[in-house]
Amino acid sequence: MSGVWRRIIALxxxxxxxxxxxxxxxxVLSVGxxxxxxxxxxxxxVGWLGLAVILLVxxxxxxKRHAAERHWPRGWFRVHMVAGIIGPFLIFxxxxxxxxxxxxxxxxxxxxxxxxxxxAGQAIHAYVLRTLHDERxxxxxxxxxxxxxxxxxxGMASQEETFRLWQPVHAPMTLAFLVLTALHVAGALFxxxx
Amino acid sequence: MRYHPLPITAVPxxxxxxxxxxVWIGWGSWRHPAALWAPGDLSRYxxxxxxxxxxxxxxxGPSQARCIVCHSNRYFERRSPAASAAxxxxxxxxxxxxxxxxxEHRGALAQITNQARVNPHGEFVFLATGARSCSACHxxxxxxxxxxxxxxxxxxxxxxxAGGTAHQPGKMAECLKCHGTGQNEE
Lengths: 194, 186
Hints:
- The complex is a heterodimer of chains A (about 190) and B (about 190).
- Chain A is about 80% helix and about 0% strand.
- With about 190 residues, chain A is mostly helical.
- In chain A, helix 4 (about 75-95) packs antiparallel against helix 5, helix 5 (about 100-140) packs antiparallel against helix 6 (about 145-160) and helix 5 packs antiparallel against helix 7 (about 165-190).
- Chain A is elongated.
- In chain B, the strands form two sheets. Chain B has a two-stranded antiparallel ribbon.
- In chain B, a hairpin with a 3-residue loop joins strand 1 (about 55) and strand 2.
């Protein structure tokens, strides 16, 4: 088994265990209660907290779009990645394994697709960067001049474009996630009270 | 350099697809609101209720004002034991939210009273004793937490006499040991 597959399996296991842990924790909090945890005051608070954390991820694309002339916002990219994991985890804790109404189910599905496509994108990007570094080292050891190395690496780097299939999934599903989440929140406030 | 997460040509397609989803949800909310919004099936007691606003007030949630349209004082006086009717009359007077004790959307077979009494004897007790309700043998307090008392009436007296020590408080849950196969029922 190659190193890439080992990492993919490890990542899938971590995601599976995290989601299962959130569901089990929610189930424990719901045992003997009149309502599922997500419908209690604390459950709603966890939902709001999850949403707030998720909204933090949008600082990075905003900065990237509007402040790109200064520098790439590395710090906000880290926030983007961390909040993009912790936020959905809190939402899983808020929801538990209770799925009945279609609107929150669709919002949850959109969130899962956005999160997984983001993880896939980051993994592909990291893999390509590492491959480029390895290739550069090999070419330097073979005695090629810097110009030839750059030419060859440019060809390799352009191939990364073919791996960017995750991006047309990540961005549109983000819009769908935002719309569906807004509907879910509006519905919860309408039927459940402010 | 400006960052565009999508090719500019994809934006109208994405916007259109999102609009389609929103319109579909709007249509579904009109035709099948429970499927889109309800967190669970209604109990068997309220399964026929429609629309959602019969119980839910907009942005105020399920309110006592909506509940007492059906569950009025007269309803409790007609259909409930006196203690229960009195309890609900007090609750209404104090404007206590019904959701303080009752819940919904937990499924068709769910109990909708928090910490509701469950029959510790099993439903077979009615067949074995001939009783038609819990209150045939027990007297209940107004609150769910109150321990029911055994009545001093002919049925209870008969059962105690017929069963000897078996028909004593705490023993009735074991009635299937004697009555389960029908061989001791003569």
